[in-house]
Design brief:
single chain, alpha+beta, OB fold (Dihydrolipoamide Acetyltransferase, E2P), five-stranded mixed β-barrel, 30% strand
């Protein structure tokens, strides 16, 4: 008996499920009969939602104490925690050993990282980032997203250069350490 393909349409409720909860419902598009276009749109929406969730983290900043005088209000910054220094290899090894412990140590915290540039890239939105050598393999090198004001700095980097950056930890993606708001260390 010949096998015939049945073309399925994305029904209303499946469409609503994909729109609101793509991480759960987009997998239904893998059933036979859904068009390639439906699958591409569904998985693109999933990727966009995951990327949006990853970038929606709010940076943590220390509160400022306000000191008021009669003539003029002034802000006095609270003393900052000491800036810890790490190598890219130490960062990668920490995430390889234990992601939960590494997140507690790095995620949302400001630190200094030193390493050798592996590659200079841009993300989906054109923001520059650098990978530093030291990952557990060549596909898992730690990534450091530079802020927009330092695009020229990124343009001047080359593979093999030793650099130091001040960054805020963002956690990891598949055990690859990610950092954001990185600026060159001017010290």
């Amino acid at each position: 008996m010949p096998h015939t393909l049945v073309s399925r349409n994305v029904g209303f409720w499946l469409g609503v499920g994909i729109f609101l909860f793509p991480i759960i419902f987009v997998w239904f598009l893998l059933r036979s009969g859904h068009s390639t276009t439906s699958r591409v749109i569904g998985f693109a929406w999933l990727a966009l939602m995951l990327f949006g969730m990853a970038n929606s983290e709010h940076s943590t900043s220390r509160p400022e104490a306000t000191v008021r005088t009669q003539s003029q209000p002034a802000k006095v910054a609270l003393p900052e925690e000491p800036l810890h220094e790490y190598t890219a290899q130490q960062l990668a090894q920490a995430y390889d050993r234990n992601t939960v412990a590494a997140d507690q140590q790095f995620k949302g915290k400001r630190f200094k990282v030193t390493g050798v540039v592996d590659s200079i890239n841009t993300d989906l939105f054109g923001n520059p980032y650098v990978t530093l050598r030291g990952g557990v393999n060549q596909f898992m090198e730690p990534q450091f997203q530079l802020d927009e004001a330092h695009a020229n700095y990124a343009a001047g980097l080359q593979s093999g250069m030793r650099i130091s950056l001040l960054c805020t930890g963002r956690g990891d993606i598949a055990k690859t350490p990610m950092s954001k708001e990185c600026v060159p260390d001017a010290r």
